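#structure-requests
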Amino acid sequence: MAVRRDVRRRANTYFFGKVLANALLLVIGVILISTFLRRVQESTAISRQLHNSEQSLAEAFSILEKNEEGAKELTRVFHDGNQDMADDLLELMNSGLFSSLVNSDHDAQAEVFTDIIDRSGVEYLFVMSTDGRILFSPVQEYNGKNPVDLGLLTEENVGKLVAGTRGENGTVTPVREDNSFGNFYFYSTRGYYRRQDFALVLGADVSTLDSQTSSLRDIPFVLDRSPVGNGGFMFAVDTAKNVFLYYKNGEEIMTGRSALETGLSEAAFEDGYSGIETIRGTSYYCVSKKFGPDTVICAAAKTQDVFRDDKYVLFWSTIGFVIVMILCLLYAVIIRNDFVRRAFKTEKKVLYKSKDLTLMFDRSIFEKIYPLMIVGVMLIFGISFYTQTLLEISQTAEESRVALEEVAGRYDESSENRKVIREYYNNRFLSKAKLIAYLIEEDPSVLNEPTSFVHYDYVEDEKVYQIDDEGNRLKSVGSSEKLLDLCERNDLESIYIFDEHGNTIATSTPNWFFYLSHDEEAQSSPFYDVIDGKKDTLVQEPMTSDMGEESQYIGVVFHYYTTKDSRGRTAYVSRYDYESSLEKGKKGNKKAAAESEAEAEEEEQGITEHRSLLQIGMKGELTDSLLEPTELSYIFSTSTLKGGHMILFDASEEQVCRYAPNETWIGMTAEELEVPAEALKGEEYYGFTRVSGIPYFQFYRYMDGYYVGAMIPESEMFQSRMKNSLIAALTSLILLIFLSATVTLTSAEEEKLFASADKKSGSRLDAAIFNIILPSGSTVSTVSASARWDNRSIPWREKAPEQKLLTMVSAIFIVLILYILVSIRFANSAFREDGVVMYILSGRWERGLNIFAFSAAMLVAVTTMILLEVIRFPLRVLTSLLGARGETIGHLMISVMKYGGVLGVIFYCLHLFGVDSTSLLASAGILSLIIGLGAQSLIKDIIAGIFIVFEGEFRVGDIVTIHDYRGKVMDIGLRTTKILGSDGNVKIYNNSEISGVLNMTKDASYSLCYIDIEYGQDIEYVEEVLNRELPDLKKKNNLILDGPTFAGVNALGASGVTLLILCTCNEEDILGVNRYLKRGVLQIFYRNNIKVPFPNLTISSLEPPEKREAEEKKIEGEEEKEKEEEAPRKDDGIFES
């Protein structure tokens, strides 16, 4: 006994030592796989963040470069416009203005120059001689002086202005002067008057240009609106001074501070740098790119945010590995103990043998655990695949969110830039229009050009000519060379000059017949406000004509002056002539006071003034180049969507597409493009759908009256999902194989210890769990029929290894589900508000076959299952207190909850998958009515089959008796059930015909033998013989588990005493054992002269005795008579023979 205790102690020590070793190896395996998977996930996250940051930087640089191009274009337009004005003024000078200025006093000169300055929007205008003296200017003190002496210009700049600021190739090189009066650009053009050179100089304030271009060149403005994935931001550093040009991260602003003092390394200032940097104690992943010679722009995101979603993938992959490894190790231990307990001889292969050690591979244990390993690896792959899918969706949603924020920022920026550019553009060309109007007012020669075009109308099919104020036909000059020259010099599309009634009197186009429309819907109608004196200028917004062409017009008040020439024709004169005539008339009236008042008025009114309109048309290509960064095609273009693009819908009832890269989509409704209705409801939405047959991931958000969406082809997603999932699965498989070696490898000493420490445990008659052989030949464990419907729990020791494994899996599963439910309960703190988990819980996704519906369906099913289990336990406890009636009610309630829960989950999941449950039920009802009329039995069979499976009346492998036919259940189908009989035949039952099933599935069953002995036989002798002989029957038949034993007298029969002999055997062997037992008992009786009575038949009659005696006498009489009749015949025969 002491030796056995020592052996058991040594075995326990060895066992626990091995358990500790396995636990240590498990910990090492967890560390290895978590470290390896973390490296993989971090590498993927870093790669993804690097790509996102580079794309964000590329977008920001694109905006900065576009803005710089816009600023340069604005600068060019500014300089060219001022130079054009100088050239136009020079032409005016050459047309007689210079001569007028020479012959005028200073007040008249100042009036002319002031008027030109007001119209052109410049600050300085003067005429300078080649020696640097100012000849004419609006300021009298400047005349005759050198600009150098006045502090206006340096000597060098005066020389440049004398030479002219327009080069031979047409480029304009303005002179910048920063003086005490301010900062100015000066432009000049050379002219000649009476063989004397002069330079016409005008100056514009630098701030006029800077105010327009500063926002375009404002790096902080762009960086503040440039989002970076994972909540990142951008900052700029001046590498020459190592200070932040711009740094704003939420409430943290460090613009102007030293970048190195915050913790950034100098390496972060290098072009193309990427890595982890520390800024004021916080770790950031930074990507840098040079912008210009001394500026570095960096995209930064907190590392904890970069790896934020990956930790869930790592957590669940590691948890999956731990669970699978624990299950494999525990299951291997359970299998080994079960083999030892049952004295099962396992198949071992010697791997190494020496004098001191024999190392063996236990193949039997490995064959038991390797299916679990494979399933475990598949589970790890599934977990990784699922979490990688959610991670990719989350990252794609984040990228889409960043793209939309970028578009929103770009839209706001473009709106500001568009406003700035339009305002600047309009002001510059408004100044040009005013100046051109002034030029033509001073030199109306273009209106006097010879022309054959006259305006006319048709009245009652008769041509009626329009008459001007001078009584002549109203002429119109078309395709004027002078106006064409002005258009070319000032980058204009067209110039129109109208009379006071809105008719064209001169134009640079062939459309001499054009007139302003009185139709309020017409584009030209608003310009009547200028003619009527309600406005002096009108800058019309760009409009699209019926031909689909965009045009913009600017109108300014224009005064023209008419008189009659010597031949009575209408002549247009300059404003100078008109004003001179007025002045002359005033003087003439003073000198000739004696003349009549009528004659004086006639002379004064010889030239008539008219208020009209000069209209310029702007070139579209000029605005196109300036406004390109503000167009939708630019605003919605992005490279951050992995081959995807943006799409725009309006908020109308039809939800019409207003922008898409595919022009055929523009104008189509969201329904026509198969965009889900949930996407355009105002809340953030994302999901998968097909557009034109191509599957897209779509992300939508409502922004300023529009629904803006990001569309990414599904083929561009999930690039690393399969790779990372396979890495996780293969790594787990390698570690599982290595760790499984600790339980499948054994030594000879270990086998001896375990064999000595345990005894074989016999089968129990009431065992709830036992092994059966399925029709397929595989051995599995099952629960006895009686234990399936009682409320008692099966002890751990009685459970088979498979049942223990199932118990462990269930326990782990419940713990994980409870963890998930608790996490969901506190989801606001456990998960990101804009993360995919919260999105799944919100239910905003489209109902259909997608991962969101799949996740929600799993959650609903698992939650329902746990709730049913939670409710079942207290319900059983409660009903058990109410006796048999309560037990009955409890079973009924549990059944109702089970079916109700299953049906509820099925219909709700169908709803999640986009199936209309109401329509489904209605369709099913109609279908059942139609089919039921002709296929009632089929419907009954299917419904009965479903209930058989759910109720668990019997299972595959059970031994049952149905309608007196006994056999093993081979298959339970939707319509039929197949039973394999002991004779090898298969009987097929329709499910609806199965009733009164006798389920005889249990581990050890009684085989009963009933046999009779004669009434005179000595019972004690028979009992003594049976007790002596029956044990020999067990020795001769291994199928008998226990017995046979004599159970006593079972019945007192008509011809003998019935005895009962019984033994235990497997249920599947009960028929053979029963036949063997009957044969054996009968032979025992024969050997020991124990008589078995023959069957006796007793016939009874219920007729009266008198009647029966009379009939018997009658029969006897008839028999005697027949004998007497037969006797002579026999004698005759003898004699004859």
